[in-house]
Amino acid sequence: MDLIPTLASLKIVPVVVIDDAAKSAPLGAALKAGGLPCAEITFRTAAAAAAIKAMSADRDILVGAGTVLTVDHAKAAVDAGARFLVSPGFGPKVVEWALANQVPIIPGVVTPTEIQMALEYGLTVVKFFPAGSFGGAKTLKGLAAVYGGLRFVPTGGIDASNIGEYLAIKAVAACGGSWICTNELITAGDWAKVTTLTAEAVAATRR
Q1: Residue 114 designated active-site
Q2: Which end of the chain has fewer CB within 10 Å, C or N?
């Protein structure tokens, strides 16, 4: 899988925090119905690996793992069916494991030093996180101007009100966000609302 073109076509990566793995399959179906067959299931809960496995049963949905902090997280995610990894920061051991096992990884960065570390590892896409806390689209635009050819997936503080600012930056492949599938909506099993929010978000990125 060539991750960057896939993300660029989707424009949004739903960031998922899920406590009950049984809800992951219907969540995937709701996202897919809204036109966004993708999810980053974060290792913020004990249900992450099981949720990845359940959602990955539908191979039409691109399922990745987020908040990958350790090599053990990475192994568990890939064993469960994750097709890409995302971490909040740059962890050399996790990056090295992913590269050695040919698993796409998007490590988090916020400074030029971290970006250059990613470049030294041959990475071509990084996560700008937490975007909203580190200057938002204005800062990212400045960073992108220096590092030509590198693609970014900004995440953190992004929602329907400001996603357009980020997507207007050519270096942005896609934006990560949780507003279309909040933990509250998942817990309530409000799949119709998830589908509606997803469809609205997808439509907004095409204007």
Answers
A1: no
A2: C
Catalytic residue (one of 23, 32, 40, 141): 40
Q: Give the distance from CA 99 to its chain's centroid.
A: 18
- Amino acid occupying residue 72: D
Annotation marks residue 40 as catalytic: yes
Classified by CATH at the fold level, domain 3-200 comes out as: TIM Barrel (3.20.20)
Integer Cα distance of 83 and 168 in angstroms: 27
- Of the residues 11, 23, 53, 127, only one is catalytic, namely 127
- Say what the pTM is: 0.97
Phi then psi for residue 102, to 5 deg, are 55, 45
55-85 tens-digit pLDDT: 999 999 999 999 999 999 999 999 999 999 9
Q: Output the six-digit token pair for 109.
A: 């960065």
pLDDT score recorded for residue 206 = 83
167-185, pLDDT tens digit by residue? 999 999 999 999 999 999 9
